[in-house]
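Our consortium's second objective concerns turning raw sequence data into structural hypotheses that experimental partners can test. To show how far this objective has progressed, the report includes one record in full. It was chosen at random from the queue rather than selected for favorable results. The single chain below, 268 residues long, was entered without modification.
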Amino acid sequence: MDKAAVKARIAPVGASPRIAFVAADTPEAQHGLEVLASRYDPVLPREAEVIVALGGDGLMLETLHANLDRSVPIYGMNCGTVGFLMNEYREDGLAQRLAAASSVELHPLRMTATCVDGGRSEALAINEVSLFRESRQAAKLRISVDGVVRLKELVCDGALVATPAGSTAYNLSAHGPIIPLGADLLALTPISAFRPRRWRGALLPHKAVVTLEILEQDKRPVGAVADYTEVRDVAKVEIREDREVTLRLLFDPEHNLEERIIMEQFLP
């Protein structure tokens, strides 16, 4: 869907969009909710043409996950700390800001985790899928890409696969690369790698299927996390981009997500 079509869906000519508000539990976000709800006649989220999320990036991720099946555009206003996925909080001119906003489409990662006991779990991740050691001993992972073993053994605290939008989150903290939105890439990043010590990860095509197998499962248990979904004692995790699920974020033209990702790469 192009930008003009998104705008037409959000704000038909001569009409204001049906807006729903969701807010974090912080005093700042709750105050913003009270003020905006008194001014803009909100509807329930399931009836909305656009959802305005008041809070930080955590609240934005919660809102996206809660609306995965609707693909309703979500416009964030920062009432949190970092607010990388949010616009500036302002109470005036909200309908005009929504009409002028740029739309960014994101596709989440789908995690399929097979547990040691044979059970299987699936979950979607907007930022990243991460594997972590569960005990005092380092994890041992075998990494395959599209069915080809690329790393026979990685001794580490864990590893993650991040989307471009998620590349500035935990991936960045783990010294992974920042990925521009239009690059059609995924970041595969080790977490505290011990052997091979000089391996810093890889950039992969967005269509790649990454399989992480856990070696010495009994001695070195590993858990997997897809954003908010945690699975314990996994034996194998498969990660791929799910192009059938589309998420839409709205940004003020001067605060678009692509520009933020570029700027992040030049911060001291």
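The partners drew two points from this record. The longest strand covers residues 148-156. Residues 1-14 have pLDDT under 50 and may be disordered. Both points have been shared with the crystallography group to help prioritize constructs.
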